[in-house]
Design brief:
By secondary structure, this protein is of the alpha/beta class. It has three domains: about 5-130 and about 250-430, Rossmann fold, CATH 3.40.50.300; about 135-250, Domain 2, N(10)-formyltetrahydrofolate synthetase, CATH 3.30.1510.10; about 445-525, Formyltetrahydrofolate synthetase, domain 3 (Roll), CATH 3.10.410. It has 19 helices and 26 strands. The longest helix has 22 residues, at about 130-150.
Length: about 550
């Protein structure tokens, strides 16, 4: 069986100007990054697309992730190819992959099998340099903060209360906690700090939520880097950093245009962490795509309890986007794991385990319905699946009044996703979506958090010590009480215990800390231990990546 990189290498891509022309982007709006990559100048929205009707917005999400895999990105790509296969004008909007996972355990994020975006190696590695620009922008602010304290500290910043770290787009556990400013008075003020991975940067979240260049600069200026000795928030604009940071991001802020294996258009732009941030591609890419295509497929990180909830309550709330349909991805393997089967036993048919695991699927379906958006279940077909296992899932969905379609895009590309695509287009065109957010802005931060925990996670209550409760109150006193909540917890369970699979209920959700993202305009509520700087596994994927004698990259997946 061919590897993903072998399949991608055999594809016959079209030049990027042809992909652009096919969706109405003339050459004056296209910045070339080689033959098969390009950036689209956002001036096209005001100058050409302003009066265009929006297409239908389709979100692809999934059941709770398992080590068996769900294939959300693969399904997203396959669905777009399927829509185009049945004659629809469709395109996809995805996040950019981070280098950390590529060289770590997860690998790349460009789809798989015959449902990929290309050029696969470019996308998974440096691509168009967006992440490097975001990292440089973040670290410029870090340098400006330390420089301000070193020279005069006119703002009276308390070095003990600086919340702004540094970032690098790599998994490097040794950088989680550092001491900077050592070596004498010429090297600044010694203090404790650390590094996050670039995708966890608030600059990344701001980048992906900004509606235009002016909004980007405003949000950058509103970033809170820490507090004064009198415990007042200090913003980036007070340090006069917003202009220079915006300048570094000017080119990166233009959406990246590439293509699928079947030469269908794809925007891949931005990539915020799906735990500490909202885990969706950029608003500007999504909105531009809606003017260019009749159907736009996008995805949100992890399972629907994290990804879809944040897509709805943060991205859609802040941008005015209104989704028309949701595809909930499930696999027989993942459902069997939620039904109590160990990973090494998943190759054998086990209909009872599938049925038992469907309680996780059921919870996600019910949760999505709370947002007023119609949902369809897509079974990502594996070669080891059996007809009886598929029937168990289809029958379960039928009893819940939800359509369920098998999709074999990994094996057959768009043709294999045609049945799913027909049903999704029908659902999106039905006009029955009555999108609404889960909670109102006016609710207190504590009540918003508890509402998510009880209504999405099935928890009985949230618990926190006095210090954390005071953090909630402090944020409200500082004027941030109307912000939405960005929950940071394990993706593997509805609870905060990653080993508690299925659909647990009645559990407590302990809150460890609360973090402000004033530029992104949300409050991060950390539940349990969340890693913002991952480490490499014992045997990292990097050990198998190489360049062969012909200059071709091998081992990337």
């Amino acid at each position: 069986m061919k590897t993903d990189i072998e399949i991608a290498r055999e594809a016959i891509p079209k030049r990027i100007e042809e992909i652009a022309t096919n969706i109405g982007i003339s050459d004056e709006y296209l910045e070339h990054y080689g033959k098969y990559k390009g950036k689209v100048n956002l001036s096209i929205n005001d100058e050409k697309l302003k009066d265009q009707d929006n297409g239908k917005l389709i979100l692809v999400t999934a059941i709770s992730p398992t080590p068996a895999g769900e294939g959300k990105t693969t399904t997203s790509v396959g669905l777009v190819d399927g829509l185009c296969h049945i004659g629809k004008n469709a395109m996809i909007c995805l996040r950019e992959p981070s280098l950390g996972p590529c060289f770590g355990m997860k690998g790349g994020a460009a789809g798989g099998g015959h449902a990929q975006v290309i050029p696969m190696t470019d996308i998974n590695l440096h691509f168009t340099g967006d992440f490097h620009a975001i990292g440089a922008a973040h670290n410029l602010l870090s340098a400006i903060v330390d420089n301000h304290i070193h020279w005069s500290n006119e703002l009276d910043i308390d070095p003990r209360r600086i919340t702004w770290k540094r970032v690098v787009d790599m998994n490097d556990r040794s950088l989680r906690e550092i001491t900077c400013g050592l070596g004498g008075t010429g090297n600044g003020i010694p203090r404790q700090s650390g590094f996050d991975i670039t995708v966890a940067s608030e600059i990344m979240a701001v980048f992906c939520l900004a509606s235009d260049a002016d909004d980007l600069k405003k949000r950058i200026g509103n970033i809170v880097i820490g507090y004064t000795r009198s415990n007042q928030p200090v913003k980036a604009k007070q340090l006069k950093a917003d202009g220079a940071i915006s300048a570094l991001l000017q080119d990166a802020f233009q959406p990246n245009l590439v293509q699928t294996l079947e030469n269908n258009p794809a925007f891949i732009h931005g990539g915020p962490f799906a735990n500490i941030a909202h885990g969706c591609n950029s608003v500007v890419a999504t909105k531009t795509a809606l003017k260019l295509a009749d159907y736009v497929v996008t995805e949100a990180g992890f399972g629907a309890d994290l990804g879809a909830e944040k897509f709805f309550d943060i991205k859609c709330r802040k941008s005015g986007l209104k989704p028309d349909a949701v595809v909930l991805v499930a696999t027989t393997k993942a459902l069997k794991m939620h039904g109590g089967i160990k990973k090494e036993e998943l190759g054998s048919e086990n209909v009872d385990a599938v049925k038992s695991g469907c309680k996780n699927l059921e919870r996600h379906i019910k949760n999505i319905r709370k947002f007023g958006v119609p949902v369809i279940v897509g079974i990502n077909d594996y070669v080891t699946d059996t007809e009886n296992e598929h029937k168990a899932i289809i029958d379960f969905c039928k009893n819940m009044g939800v359509a369920c379609k098998l999709s074999s895009h990994w094996e057959k590309g768009g043709e294999g996703a045609a049945d799913l695509a027909k049903e999704v287009a029908k659902l999106a065109d039905s006009g029955i979506s009555e999108f609404k957010t889960l909670y109102d802005n006016q609710m207190s931060l504590w009540d918003k958090t508890e509402y998510i925990a009880q209504n999405i996670y099935g928890a009985s209550e949230i618990i926190a010590d006095k210090k954390v409760r005071n953090q909630f109150k402090k944020l409200e006193d500082d004027g941030f009480g109307n912000y939405p909540i960005c929950m940071a917890k394990t993706q593997y369970s509805f609870s905060t215990d990653p080993l508690l699979m299925g659909a647990p209920s009645g559990h407590d959700v302990p809150i460890k800390e609360v973090r402000l993202s004033a530029g992104a305009e949300f409050v991060v509520v950390v539940c349990g231990d969340i890693m913002t700087m991952p480490g490499l596994p014992r045997i990292p994927a990097a050990e198998n990546i190489d360049v062969d004698e012909n200059g071709l990259i091998q081992g990337l997946f």
